[in-house]
Amino acid sequence: MKQLSLAEDPCPKQILEFQSESKIVLNEENLREILLQPAIKNKQVCIVSIAGTFRQGKSFMLNFFLRYLTLKYKLKKSVPQNWINVEDGDISGFPWKCGSERHTLGILMWPEVFIAEIPSGEEVAIILLDTQGTFDNQTTKQNCAGIFAISTLISSVQVYNLKDKITQLDLEHLEYFSEYGRLTLNTDSSSTHFPFQSLCFLIRDWQYSFERNFGTKGGEEFLNHIFLAPDTPLTLKQQNDNIRNLFEKITCFLMPFPGEKVASAPSFQGNLEDIEQNFLKYVEEFVPLILAPENLVAKISNGNKVKVGDLFYFIKNCCKYFADQKLPQLSSLFMATSEFHCEIASEECLSMYKKLMESHVRDKVLDEDHLYVLHCNEKTKAVDHFKNTPIFGNEHFKRSYETVLELKLQEMFLLYEKFNKTKLSVQQALENQKQQHDEDLMQSLEKMASHHQMKKKYIEDNIEQNEKMLGAYRNKYESRDPKIMEQVERVQRLSEKEPVQKSLLWQILDYCSCLKTN
């Protein structure tokens, strides 16, 4: 049997865990390794989480999600309606086991991020989360709520995995988060944003197919029966309304029983032949409803698309409230979300300011007054952008971040000012060096010109004296000795071609005198 490869048999990474009775700790190294990969950190993200009561088959179901993601987005296969094949091997990935003891602890994230192209042509990264089961008799209600709350905050699709039906306790558990939702909705009465995006009730081992069929249609009927029944008592109706106001979309899917071997046989290792065909049939229907390209729900927070890298900082913000060794109140989770939105908006504004300022100072040297005017203009643009960005939180909280943003912008300006001063100093030094060079050059040229004038005058004086002396000798010896005259004429011709030194002329004339004497 050919085993379908899952990226060299990876295993889920723990990103949150309990280190003591009430302290949740973030594994930042695992989170960074998955979410800050350069190839994916700037992509939109769809986060699918599964949560619910412990020992209800959450991890087992996630492995079918993995099978679909591998076929569709990793191996790039055309996925037919009947996409689960025995030939692809056993179901594997997220660990699970039979029995009554809890297995998954904290929150696990699958390390492989799958990239899908949605109908708009955009790419969306898909991330799977597995969460610790609630009400395991070893974890307090507040701790269970904390795990559920964080996974719901992180995810764009929360699969609420329940057994048999939706009970009043299940709804009470969901309503436990209504304070968070109410705080969120009351921050801006005109806001149309829900605190969470998509909730899917996955009802496992549905026993009443004679009343409502398996699948989406039966699930929709069952959901309407729960939330819209006309005879619902007022208190329960208010509870249901609170839940409906938490999520932008709520759906339900009724899933059949997977078979006795899956439910109770310790020897079961994921062999598809041990699983009931009717169960596999509805898994083939259910999983694409979550993970098919046209059904992917990209993570949106306060109306803004969240990128994979943003998710890293969002999770960090949520978890820092656990640093005091106690789980936060729901209002603190609200503050974590508000802080996340403010930090993302602040980073956008800082990036905007940086881009604008660098366009001014990159290839120019500006005087200090002009640089300050540019800073004020670009700072105003950045702060206005922050003010106009919808923020998850009250105005006081937003103003505090605005103040911090202005301080950061001022710090960035000081760096640009220092950079410009350095360039200005270098430019001034170069100008001084050029000026000094020009002055030295002029002095050298003036010296050369003066020397040339002196030499020219000296030569002219010599030529004048030479001509006088040659004329005197010509007059004196012209009628007396042809040889002397021949030498005089020779000296005269030479002096016409090149200035003759006085000493040389005197030597020649002395020679002529000697000839005369002889």
UniProtKB/TrEMBL annotation:
Chain ranges of the GB1/RHD3-type G domain: 42-295
Molecular-function GO term, any one: GTP binding
CDD domains (alphabetical): GBP
InterPro entries in the record: G_GB1_RHD3_dom, Guanylate-bd_C_sf, Guanylate-bd_N, P-loop_NTPase
Database matches in Pfam families: GBP
Coiled-coil positions: 416-447
Keyword Manganese: no
Keywords: Coiled coil, GTP-binding, Hydrolase, Nucleotide-binding
PANTHER family in the record: GUANYLATE BINDING PROTEIN (PTHR10751)
Family: Belongs to the TRAFAC class dynamin-like GTPase superfamily. GB1/RHD3 GTPase family.
Protein name: GB1/RHD3-type G domain-containing protein
Species this protein is from: Zophobas morio
